[in-house]
């Protein structure tokens, strides 16, 4: 808000997208990983610069990525070559600075090294009262480099399935991967959405006024502080792209409130929304006229969410 006030006093057009990108990264790194960043006042912050490189339009697609897409059977080879390429670039640009004139370091490798350092420092500090995402994951860290997940077994001649107990641990590599994913997934999407919302409100002053009046009438500082779902929501954000049993274990460790039992308890709510959706479809069918089903699906989706 201070930066916005400064821009307002200048009484000149400005790019709010830049402010939102800095604001988003400050929030992600401070709330998610406990770093005291100030990117809104320091546009040359290395975390911000590297994040911008990830989403930059001029960032090229590695030939190894193309090979991975078209020949996935050899993904072990392409992944290995990609990591070797990233390691060589990182070593050259950090230990032989003159090479930066000819090659650029690998942004993914940069983030991996930074996350490993974050994890190492936090483990050395021991328990901390900072309730950020990193601390939540480190409470379940394992010293093992790999955790073998046991598959679900089916009893012969029966329909009974037996699920082995989940290992309530995460490897350091899994924690580092989720830190990088959380940053990359949240940076561009959040800042772009905020910028578009700001643009829409700026170009529709009547709607902006109505929204402001609604916020002033129904929300205040204390009601936001007492919002009962804030903490559970922060702990149940879906962060992972790992498949199968590995994803199940990670979800179970990080998201204790997101269990299969609680999903089943949501079934009546979901069924109610489905019934309402089918009713709307029946109404449209009786009208015997073309209609935009996309609109109905959007409403159904938001009702369910």
UniProtKB/TrEMBL annotation:
InterPro entries reported for this sequence: Cyt_P450, Cyt_P450_sf, Cytochrome_P450_3A
Q: Does the keyword Coiled coil apply?
A: no
Which UniProt keyword terms apply here? Heme, Iron, Metal-binding, Oxidoreductase
One MF term in GO for this entry? heme binding
Gene3D superfamilies (alphabetical) = Cytochrome P450
Q: Which family does it belong to?
A: Belongs to the cytochrome P450 family.
Protein name per Swiss-Prot or TrEMBL = Cytochrome P450
Which species is listed as the source? Rotaria sordida
Name the lineage.
Eukaryota, Metazoa, Spiralia, Gnathifera, Rotifera
């Amino acid at each position: 808000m201070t930066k916005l006030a400064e821009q307002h006093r200048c009484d000149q057009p400005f790019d709010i997208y830049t402010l939102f990108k800095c604001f988003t990264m400050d929030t992600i790194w401070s709330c998610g990983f406990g770093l005291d960043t100030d990117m809104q006042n320091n546009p040359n912050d290395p975390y911000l610069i590297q994040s911008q490189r990830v989403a930059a339009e001029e960032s090229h697609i590695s030939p190894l990525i193309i090979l991975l897409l078209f020949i996935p059977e050899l993904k072990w080879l392409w992944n290995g070559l990609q990591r070797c390429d990233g390691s060589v670039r990182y070593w050259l640009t950090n230990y032989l600075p003159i090479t930066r004139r000819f090659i650029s370091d690998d942004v993914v490798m940069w983030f991996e090294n930074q996350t490993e350092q974050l994890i190492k420092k936090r483990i050395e500090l021991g328990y901390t009262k900072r309730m950020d995402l990193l601390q939540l994951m480190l409470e379940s860290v394992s010293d093992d480099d790999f955790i073998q997940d046991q598959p679900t077994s089916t009893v012969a001649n029966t329909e009974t399935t037996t699920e082995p107990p989940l290992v309530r641990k995460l490897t350091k590599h899994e924690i580092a991967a989720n830190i990088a994913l959380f940053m990359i997934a949240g940076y561009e999407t959040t800042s772009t959405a905020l910028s578009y919302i700001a643009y829409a409100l700026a170009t529709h002053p009547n709607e902006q006024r109505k929204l402001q009046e609604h916020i002033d009438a129904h929300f205040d500082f204390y009601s936001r502080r007492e919002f009962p779902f804030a903490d559970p929501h922060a702990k149940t954000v879906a962060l992972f792209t790992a498949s199968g049993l590995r994803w199940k274990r990670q979800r179970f460790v990080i998201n204790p409130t997101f269990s299969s039992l609680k999903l089943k308890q949501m079934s009546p709510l979901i069924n109610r929304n489905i019934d309402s959706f089918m009713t709307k479809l029946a109404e449209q069918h009786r009208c015997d006229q073309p209609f935009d089903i996309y609109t109905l699906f959007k409403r159904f989706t938001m009702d369910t969410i």
